[in-house]
Each structure stands twice: as C-alpha cells, then as structure tokens.
Amino acid sequence: MTRKQKKVLYRIIIAAVLIAVIVLLPVEGIAKLLLFLVPYLVIGYDILRKAALGIVHGEVFDENFLMTVATIGAMCLGEYTEGVAVMLFYQIGELFQSYAVGKSRRNISALMDIRPDYANIEVEGILEQVDPDEVEVGSMIVIKPGERVPLDGIVTEGSSTLNTSALTGESVPREIHAGEDIISGCINMTGLLHVQTTKGFEESTVAKILDLVENSSMKKAKTENFISRFARYYTPFVCYSALALALLPPVISLLMGNPADFPEWIKRALTFLVISCPCAVVISIPLSFFGGIGGASAKGILVKGSSYLELLSKAKYMVFDKTGTLTEGVFRVTKTVPEDISKEELLYYAASAECYSDHPIAKSLREACDREVQRDQVTDYTELGGMGICAKVEGHVVYAGNDKLMKEQHISYRPVTETGTVVYVSADGKYAGAVVISDVVKRNAKRAIAGLKAAGVNKTVMLTGDRKEVAKEVALQLGLDEVHSELLPADKVDCVERLLKEKNEKECLAFVGDGINDAPVLTRADIGIAMGAMGSDAAIEAADIVLMDDDPSKISLAMQISRKTLGIVYQNIIFALSVKFGCLILGALGIANMWMAIFADVGVMVIAVLNATRTLKVKESQDQGLYACEE
Amino acid sequence: MKKTYKIEVDCAACAQKMEDAAKKIEGVKEATVSFMTQKMKVEFEDEQDEQKVMKTVLKACRKVEPDCEIFFE
Fold first, then answer.
1. Which of A49, A145, A221, A599 is the 20 to 30 Å CA partner of A319?
2. Ranges for all domains in chain A classified under CATH 2.70.150.10
3. Most A CBs within 10 Å: which of B16, B62, B63, as the mutation test of the A interface?
4. Residue A541, Cβ density class (10 Å: 0-12 exposed, 13-18 middle, ≥19 buried)
5. CB–CB of A286 and B10 under 8 A?
6. Architecture of domain A242-326+442-631
7. How far apart are alpha carbons A579 and A572 in whole angstroms?
8. Which residue ranges form the domains of chain B, and what is each CATH number?
C-alpha cells in the first residue's frame, strides 16, 4: 500500500471505532449530532473539501458532490449513523479500488520488466557499469551470464544461449554466436558475450517496446469513450431526478389535499443519490483493457491501443501475406528423388556442384547435405546461364540445373511435378536424380488457421507475389478460403481494398504480414498485424498489433484475449448498470434504504473491479492447447 | 511536438476530466490521459513554450480535480 492508501486505511479504522463507541453511548439530540460529526469529519473531510472546490470551480456534478449531499442530507434528517456509515463505506470502496488498480498496474509492469539497468563497458581492462542511455553507438559492451542485454548490437566474441521469454513469451532459449545480431531485452544465460552496439538506447528494441506498451492505453477503445461520455450525462440526470423525487411527490400530495411527508421523500431521494454513483463502470473498463493488453504482452503480443484490442474481437476477415508469415520464407530441400544412387550421394553431387554459388538454392542444398563439401575436390566449375552448373566433383562430371539443361545434355531425366524449384542432377552423363527445393510452411500455420476459424473468423485469404501453383499448394495445405497469387505490392493494396468493400460495416479486416514490404497494406487494413518483429523497427511502426516472434498461432491467442477482455467489459457494463437501475427504482419506491444503497454501490464496484482484473490472466490451457499438437 | 508526462490522479473519471480540460488549453493540439499508466500525452501546437502551456494545463486540471499532479519540470 502507498502512503496515501495507508492514511485512508487509518482514517477508516478510527472512524469505524468511533462510530461503534458513539452508538453505544446513551446520548440524544444535539449532543449525539456533535459526537457523530467527529467520525464524519475524520472520514469525509477530503470529500467535503473536493465537493466545495468543485462547486467553486463550476464542476458541480461528481461523486464527491453526490456523497456530500447524500450524507449531509441524512444527518439533517437525524439519521446520523447512516450518514456517517455511507461516507465510511464509500471510502472503503475507494480504497479497495485504488489498491486493486495499483496492484494490477504493478503486475503489468512486472510482466514487462525488460528495462536493462546498466551496461558493462571495458575501460582499461576493468569492467565498469554505466547507464545504457550513455553508451554511444559502436561501443563495445560485455554481457555476463545472467545479465540482460542492454542495447541492440552485433556479437563480436563468444557464444551463448538467450532467454527471450520476456520479449516473445517463448520459453525455448535461442542460441547466439559471434557475428550474429543481438537484441536488447533478452537475458544472456550461459556464456560471456562481447557486443558492439549498433543503436543507442532510445532506438533499441527494448526502448521501443516499452514505449509502445506504455502508450498503448492512450488509444482508447470506443467502449471506453462511450462510458466517459455516459458518465458526463448520467450524473446530472441522476441529480435532477433526485431533486424531482424529493419535491414532486410531496407537492403533488399536498395539492391533492394529503399530508406532504417531506422527510420520507427526501430520504428516498438521498438513497437514490447514493446508489447512483457511476464509479464501478467508469473504473472497471479501462482496468479491463489495461489488463488485457498487459496479459497479451506477457505472451509476446504487443497491442498498440485498447481500440485495436476491441477491433480484433470483431475480426471476420483475416488476410495473410505468404512468405515469412505462413511460410518460413527460407528455401529448404523438401524432397529428393535419387536414381540408382543413394540420397546422400545425390545431395553431395548437387551441393558440390553449387559450392561456389551464393544463390539461396545453393545454400539450401549445402544445408541439406550431411557431408561437408570439399571445395578442393571441385574443379572445372562453369555456370551455364539460365540453366545451371557444370563441374567436376571428385573426378565425376556433374551437371546440376533445370530441365533445359538435361535436354541440352541429352540426358534422359524423369520429370518431377512437385511444386517448388527442381534441380536435376546428372553424373558422368547418367541421370542421378532430382532435388526439390521450396519454401516450407511454418509448423504452426495449419493449426493457426484452424484456431482462427474456431475463434470466429469467416474468411481467410492469402495474398502472395509467388507463382500460382505454389500459392495453391500452400492454400490447400493450410485450408485457406481464398488465394490471390502473382501480385505486385500495389496489387495487394487493391486486393485488400476490394475485400474491405465486400465486408459489412461491423466486421473487421485484419492483415497479417512480416512488415518488411507490406507497410502500405498494414496501414490500410482495419487492423495491421506484424509478426516476427524482433528487431524489425519498420514492423513495429506500421502495425497496430505486433507479434514478437513469428508464430502465426499467436494471432488466435490474441483474438481469444481480445474476446475475453471485451466479454468482461460488457459483463461489467451490463451487471453494474442493471444493478444500479434496479436499485434506483427500489430506492425511489422506498423499498431500498440507505444501507442497501451503500452496499449496492460498493458491492457492485468491488465485483466489477475483481472481474476486470481477470483479464490479466491468460489461461495456460488456452496457450498450451495451441502448441500441444506440434510437440 | 509531443511529450509525455507522469501524472498523479486517483480516479478514472477524474482522469477523463483532466483530459477534457487539457484539450481546451490554448497551445495544446491534442491531449490524452491514461488513468492506468498515470501518464498524460500532450501534443503542442507549433512554436509554443512547453513549460508555459503546461502551467496553464495544470491550473485547468486542478480546477476539475483539486488533488491531481502533473510532473513537467
């Protein structure tokens, strides 16, 4: 508890004890009033002060005003215990609310505790700890095991494993070696690393993420704005209604020749005021959104504002980029068709023939080959433009390339119909087989699409610049509804525009890309989701929701979080308002008294706040359910 | 120019009132208050003295919520 909260707590205890004592004392009349004024002022002086200041400043209708009028009114009617108790319970409610909010605020900052405290700089052989802010770009820093990486950079010496869970929510550690990029915010687990920084602290990944998360509650959701506007009209409405309730019935009764019974109607009006406090709804909504955003960031899903969390729950169209989003974006050997030789031999011939090439295909061949390629065994290397390569591998004449090359060399080959790039190989004029290389579908992609369908997405669409056959194959494999292939970047925008027109007003369209060359589409869609954003500034800038790792199944997790948050928001609005209006009617009819009123007010708020804090918890089962099948 | 300030405010409704009050101040182009993060983000109009504008903002906010605090110095 903060000092402020403790002070309120002591005041509550003192006032409660005083009330208990005074109730037992055998005093009556004016002496009783004076005695009750002591706990009343102890517990309510700040409310009275704020109400008075509010009136002075022309801000009449607020909670302080409601409470002041209700309690003073009760005291005037001789209901001393009620008057003080209402103030006491109101303060208990406020204290609870401020405690709960403070707690979730701390919980969320703990989840996002990625701010590095210091960086180690070597000065004349001695390590010195300095503020990451002060480290200049290009400096050499040292990261010891157990320390947080303070700045983005390149590892120059050493290798280690990194814990990226604070950034990505992924618990499997990542390996890092000299020459590779390192991202701030991860924790160095095993080895000593020497790093040359490439960015200042302000531009580093960790600073960008913190900035994003901290500013996320600035983009308010429609529901949030609605409720604050609502409160603005609600309070004056309630005040005037209370006034009418206090005056109209007795006056009408007088006119009809009956006794007026002012005290009874005033009492009802005061009860009405106590019930009407809108704090439960007003507090629980931003709290729910904040919790939802916090829970999502703990899973490596950064949401840039409550408004996007709200929109995501309405996403009915999910449009994907292919390469890097649904597929790995890296070429791999997916199939080998050896002819009369072993698979290993075929790969060795192909990889050796291509050993001087930097082409992605050559790289993927070398990666797939078990044996290290001996460059000195490869001679007479010639590139045959547009066809392939000819080289002598361990004395054998090897041709590796497309079907044209085989035809030209009059080698009878067996055509392969697989989608992807096919490399035919011949050794000593004899056909040796074919290797198929293609972009691989991400291992979670199929589940991700199924998960989205289950989460209520009506249409999944894939846009790609790739060839038709490849696109179709991927779409079929993943169970996508629609696919558009051979698109230029500008065509992708047109495609999204068309889909935006097609959908109905209330539905939302989300575009998922890797943020590298689809920034225009990301901004055009209702919700832009960028994935694999570790280290990609462009993606963080352009998108509304950022997935820190490149796991597409995180999208359905994000949708679940969004649904849950919105569900809780609506529960709270409906619950609080229906209880309030119900009690208002009971109060006006004289069925509910002031005690019931104060319990309705504080009780509803406590329940609403507790309900709102549920958003912070992302159920483990939801999470594991998504990954369980792959492991 | 955009700047973010730490603030202290006790209730969500008051935070909303502060936001509305700050928006009306001359020199302020846009203002947002987040109750949950206890931050105020202000976008100033061109060539405005930030400190001067913020003093008026604080004054206006104190009017709607006497207990609030904005840390801008």
1. A221
2. 119-150+152-198
3. B16
4. middle
5. no
6. 3-Layer(aba) Sandwich (3.40)
7. 10
8. 2-71 (3.30.70.100)
Q: Do B13 and A59 touch (CB under 8 A)?
A: no
A218 in contact with chain B, both atoms CB, cutoff 8 A: yes
User: How many angstroms separate the CA atoms of A626 and A587, rounded?
Assistant: 50
* CB A153 within 8 Å of CB A188: no
ipTM confidence score: 0.82
Give the per-residue pLDDT at A298: 82
Query: Which token pair is A585?
Result: 């009617």
pLDDT (tens digit, 9 = 90+) per residue, A550-571?
788 889 899 999 999 999 999 9
The reply to whether residue A218 touches residue B64, judged by beta carbons under 8 angstroms, is: no
The whole-number average pLDDT for the span A533-551 is: 75
Q: How far is A212 from chain B (nearest CA, A)?
A: 12
Q: Which of B12, B39, B41 sits opposite A286 (nearest CB)?
A: B12
The two tokens of residue A362 are 């050559």
Looking at residue A571, what is its pLDDT?
A: 92
Tokens at A368, concatenated = 């797939």
Q: What angle do CA A599, A605, A609 make, to 5 degrees?
A: 145
Specify whether A181 is catalytic.
no
Token representation of residue A7: 């002070």
Residue B6: closest C-alpha in chain A: A214
Considering the candidates A152, A321, A551, A601, report the single residue annotated as catalytic. A321
Handedness of CA A70, A75, A79, A83 (dihedral sign): positive
**Nearest partner of A604 among A291, A289, A281, A232, judged by Cα:** A281
Whole-Å CA distances, A403 to A399, A406, A554, A564:
11, 5, 41, 55
pLDDT at A624: 43
C-alpha span between A47 and A89 (Å, rounded): 13
Closest by CA to A293, choosing from A550, A569, A77, is A569
Do the chains contact at B13 and A214, CB–CB below 8 Å? no
